[in-house]
Design a protein that fits this description.
Elements (H helix, E strand, L loop, with lengths): L1 E6 L3 E2 L18 E2 L23 E2 L14 E2 L3 E15 L2 E10 L30 E9 L1
Antiparallel strand pairs: 1-6, 2-5, 3-4, 6-7, 7-8
Length: 143
Amino acid sequence: TGLVTLQSGAPLTILAGSDRSQTGLSNDRAVISGPAYGGTYCTTAPCVNYLNVSSFSLPATGTFGNVGKGVLTGPGLINVDAGFVKGVAVREHVNLQFRVEFFNIMNRANFNNPTTSVSGAGFGTIRSAGDPRIGQAALKLTF
């Protein structure tokens, strides 16, 4: 058996992290003034250059930011799962089944979204990823 999952990245909204507009909104958007992405593909966590942090800043007090909602995307996902099954007839009504399953068989690093608050620690940094390769085996006797 097999299953291939290909997904584009989830939408990202870059936030100021505080009420800069003084309107009671706790998550005003940031200001963007340059290229949003860092330019290199990350292969290990923590990924510190997914977003170009120097392109984002806090809006002036009493104003709104210009970053649109969900205009950026996080890292995409590529995942391949596979399973192998072998059945053996032991007797007339007794069967033995051996099953092996692998999740993320290619062991690809599927990174989570970066920190999106300009005023937060680690802004633009990806600190975690999805599960690595996982394998499991099972033996089933039916009678």
